[in-house]
Amino acid sequence: MENNSEAVRHNNIGFLKKFEKYLGEFVYGGIDGCVTTFAVVAGSVGAGLDSAIIIILGFANLLADGFAMSVGAYLSTKSEKDNYNKHKKIEYWEVDNIPETEKQEIREIYEAKGFEGELLEQVVDVITKDRDTWVDVMMKEELIMMEEDKSPFMIGGVTYVSFILIGLVPLLVYVWDYISPMEHNLFLIASILTSFGFIAVGWLKSYVNQTKVLRGILETLLLGGIAALVAYYVGDLLEKIIAG
Predict the structure, then answer these.
(1) Which residues contact 182 (CB under 8 A, 6 or more apart)?
(2) What share of the chain is helix, strand, coil (3-state, %, to 5)?
């Protein structure tokens, strides 16, 4: 029984570490989802649209924009991986076919770092002794390229999930009102709920960026507030122009 508990604990730790690896994507997907959906809600309220229309526009934005953002994140990461692998193949070819030229490049790289004489030659010999090490050094030192160890599919998936989860917050009160009508200021409640969403995401953002918690929260709240104000007054202006 104790062994099973230990195994479960290790599995949980492994899952958390894997999730933490993609925490940045979760944070920025959540911020974008919350900001854009709240902006849609604010713009719709400014235009005097009915709750049912707000729900339709909100969910259309949530699903379509979230998908577009996740696909963009997937393709961007995949492109970086493909570009890295392309240059790595070139480096392998150069190491195999023009080794002296590549060895001289290693020598020049470490000479620029302050190595000289016998020590420099020892460093060059050690690096060029192993083909894989040689190529890795060339990728990092000559091309300034680091291999992305995160899965493009996971990046896109986490981005989409967080976009929907956090972006759903501004719509919750409208969905609830549609199911069971409420005699309250829906936009005020949506704004309060969204603020809590921004606070949570801002806190996670400060963790990812290793910045002060208060700063992360205030930046996220300010960003969402500005987007909502712009959307609200644009919606209000367009409603007056079209209706007037």
Answers:
(1) 173, 176
(2) 85, 0, 15
The answer to whether the CB of 108 falls within 8 A of the CB of 141 is no
Quote the mean pLDDT of the chain. 87
Q: Give residue-wise pLDDT tens across range 175-225.
A: 999 888 888 889 899 999 999 988 898 888 888 888 888 888 888 888 888
Query: Rounded to 10 degrees, what is the CA torsion of 228, 234, 238, 239?
Result: 40
Across the range 234-238, mean pLDDT stands at: 82
Place of tokens 């890795």: 136
- What pLDDT digit, counting tens, does each position of 136-160 carry? 999 999 998 988 888 999 999 999 9
For tokens 């002060």, what's the residue?
212
Cα–Cα distances in Å, from 24 out to 14, 15, 20, 209?
A: 18, 16, 8, 8
- pTM strictly above 0.85: no
Give the three-class secondary structure for 143: coil
